[in-house]
Design goal:
Layout (H helix, E strand, L loop, with lengths): L14 E3 L11 E2 L5 E4 L5 E5 L2 E2 L1 E3 L11 H7 L1 H14 L1
Antiparallel strand pairs: 1-6, 2-5, 3-4
Length: 91
């Protein structure tokens, strides 16, 4: 079964380097596509696998490895909806 594709205008989303801001000197974020979250023994949300990246999507403002995560995040509905749902649960 072929994955449903998201519509993405050319040049609408692109990968940019994460630059330090006034509030932080950190130039890395956790890749939302390849990092895996789960629950520890106490039920607390933790990273089971964490991978940091120096890149983000200019429009979505989420950390994404350049390849293959950037493309997969923007073209696979299942991946994007799962990541968005997980982010909402952590709020």
């Amino acid at each position: 079964m072929q994955a449903e594709r998201l519509s993405m205008k050319e040049n609408d989303h692109f990968s940019t380097r994460i630059e330090p801001t006034d509030s932080t000197s950190k130039r890395q974020r956790i890749c939302v596509a390849c990092s895996i979250r789960g629950k520890d023994a106490n039920g607390k949300s933790v990273y089971l696998h964490k991978r940091e990246t120096r890149f983000k999507c200019n429009r979505c403002n989420v950390g994404l490895c350049q390849e293959p995560c950037f493309f997969l995040y923007h073209t696979r509905v299942e991946l994007k909806s799962a990541v968005v749902e997980a982010q909402q649960l952590d709020v």
